[in-house]
Each structure stands twice: as C-alpha cells, then as structure tokens.
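Field log, afternoon session.

UNIT: design team B
ACTIVITY: writing a sequence onto a fixed backbone
BACKBONE:
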C-alpha cells in the first residue's frame, strides 16, 4: 500500500466509516444515502457507527449496503442515531478511538455534524492515520466554509410554520408573543424566521449581547399606539436571555402593559421530513465528499457549498465564527423597527 503524507493512500481505499454526531438535523439520512451509494460505485465498503463517536468506542457498527439506504432520504433524524460523546474529549480518548479505527481497518471517517463534532475530528487527527472528512449537519447554519448547512432549510420552514400559526392566535387575542428559536452563536435562524414570518422584532447576537427589556417594552407600546390593539411577534435566538424566554415574557408583560406569552420551539425544529433543498444539499455534499476522498483531496476538510458550487474547506477553520447573518436584512429589519 502506498503512503501519502503518512496517510493511507486513498486510491486503494476499501473501507470507510461514517457517523452522525451531535444534534440531529433533517437531511442527515439523505447524506448517508449519498455516501453509501457513491462509495458503492468505487467498490468501497461503508461501516456505519451508531450513536456518533460513541459507536467507535463501543464497537457498535453495521455494514451499510445500498439496500439499507435507498429509501431513507425523506426520513428525519438519522438511522445511525446520534449522541454527544463524553469519552472523546477525555485524556487518551482520541488515541483510543484512533486505535479502534485502525483495528477495524477504517481508512477514512466521514463525520456528519456541527462544530462540536468537527472539534472531535481535529482531536482525533493527532492519532488517526486515515483521512477525516466533515459534512455540515446542523440547523444553526453556524459553520464557516459553507453557505448553508444540512438541516437549516427544514428548521426554517418548521419555525416559520409555527410563527404563522402563532400569529393567528396572537391576532385573535391582540397579544404579544415571544417565539424562541435555536441558534447559539449566530442569528441565522432567528433572522430568517423573523423576516419570513413578518415579525415586528428580532433579537439575536448580531444586534448585541444584552437584551434591553425596557427598550423592547417601549417599542411594543409605541407600535400599539401607532396601530392600535394588535398582535406583536418577537423572534428570539436561544441563550440571548439567560433567565429564559418565559421570564422575559413576564417582564415584558409588566413593563409594556400588554399580555406577552412565550413559545419555545426547542427540539421541534430538528424533527420532520427534510425539505427538498436539504435533501439536495445533503446528497450533493455526501457524494462530493466520497469523490474527493477517492481523489485524495479531502483529509481534514469539510465538504461545503459556496455560491452553488461544492467546495472543500479546512475542518480546523469551520468554527471560527466569521460567518454572519445577512447584513442587509439585519440593517433593514433595524430600520423598520425604528419606524414603530
């Protein structure tokens, strides 16, 4: 077997591993399908590890055949299951995982997940002789190197459907509703759902780290003075208010003089059948990642999409948080708010 940069030479690759890690995202199954079908074209066996990186430590895996994946693209969640792995960050964890992969003759490992999963890949790379490739699977859309992540579009549709329904009841009772969506470090989901759902106000990290309750209450009062008794929707990115959305809603009720209710969408946003765009993105990136492995270009890279083109981006840089929500929409929403 030839050696390239102390890695297994990919042109003679016979066996690869794949796992889904961290928070599940709609479209992960479509990515698995593309990985297996593409690998089959090259005569490569695919080993699927269950429950994320835990499957490596526990030697909990299965051979994935084309029959296993042909009809899974429309299914939410992940057939391999997912989980956080406590053992990988522990001292000796990456080395132990690498030894098991070597023992199983896994020549490359594809990891479908988010920033935490990719940090696990970086740690593993210090000991693993095979190739490591990431596929961006997270509803937060917070990874650098790709315009969109697998699962974001579906989560947006789920959040938007909820906001539209909340608007109906908000109109009926002329109430203020606070809708919390996921997104820890970036306001991609909050901004997109808020804009699409015609929210009166959006609270996300790009507008600042501190939530001014008095200022928001004043905006609500001003809006209702201008438009009369009416609904008012606020979309809030999670973790923006440490005391929680319910507490913020209570404080807004007191300070604005209008009834405010909180709705936390939570894990609802991760479920459901992936929309077409997520299935297409997942298929594209799954197939591209395997082809780049075969070509010998993909070690410690993430397969992403930029301006409609499949690209490779260094895994180590995906969590740099340089990617920001659309500055035009942020500025436009802020200007509209000032008109209240």
């Amino acid at each position: 077997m030839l050696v390239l940069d102390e890695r297994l030479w990919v042109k003679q690759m016979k066996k690869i591993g794949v796992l889904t890690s961290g928070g599940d995202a709609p479209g992960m199954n479509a990515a698995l399908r593309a990985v297996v079908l593409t690998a089959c074209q090259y005569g490569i066996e695919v080993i699927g590890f269950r429950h994320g990186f835990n499957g490596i430590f526990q030697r909990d895996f299965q051979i994935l055949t084309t029959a296993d994946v042909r009809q899974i693209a429309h299914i939410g969640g992940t057939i391999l299951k997912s989980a956080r792995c406590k053992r990988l960050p522990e001292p000796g964890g990456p080395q132990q995982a690498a030894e098991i992969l070597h023992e199983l003759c896994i020549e490359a490992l594809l990891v479908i997940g988010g920033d935490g999963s990719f940090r696990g890949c970086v740690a593993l790379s210090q000991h693993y002789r095979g190739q490591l490739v990431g596929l961006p699977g997270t509803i937060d859309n917070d990874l650098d190197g790709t315009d969109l992540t697998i699962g974001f579009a579906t989560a947006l549709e789920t959040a938007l459907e909820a906001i539209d329904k909340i608007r109906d009841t908000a109109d009926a009772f002329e109430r203020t509703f606070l809708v919390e969506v996921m997104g820890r470090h970036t306001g991609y989901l909050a901004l997109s759902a808020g804009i699409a759902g015609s929210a009166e106000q959006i609270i996300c990290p790009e507008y600042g780290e501190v939530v001014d309750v008095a200022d928001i209450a004043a905006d609500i009062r001003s809006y209702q003075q201008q438009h009369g008794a009416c609904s008012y929707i606020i979309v809030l990115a999670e973790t923006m208010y440490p005391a929680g959305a319910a507490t913020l809603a209570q404080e807004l009720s007191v300070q604005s003089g209008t009834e405010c209710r909180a709705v936390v969408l939570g894990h609802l946003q991760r479920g459901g059948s992936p929309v077409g765009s997520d299935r297409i993105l997942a298929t594209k990136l799954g197939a591209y990642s395997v082809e780049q492995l075969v070509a010998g270009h993909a070690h410690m890279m993430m397969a992403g999409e930029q301006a409609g083109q499949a690209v490779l981006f260094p895994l180590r840089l995906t969590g740099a948080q340089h990617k920001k929500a659309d500055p035009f929409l942020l500025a436009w929403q802020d200007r509209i708010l000032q008109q209240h």
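LOG NOTE: The chain has a mean pLDDT of 94.
NEXT ACTIVITY: expression trials, pending approval
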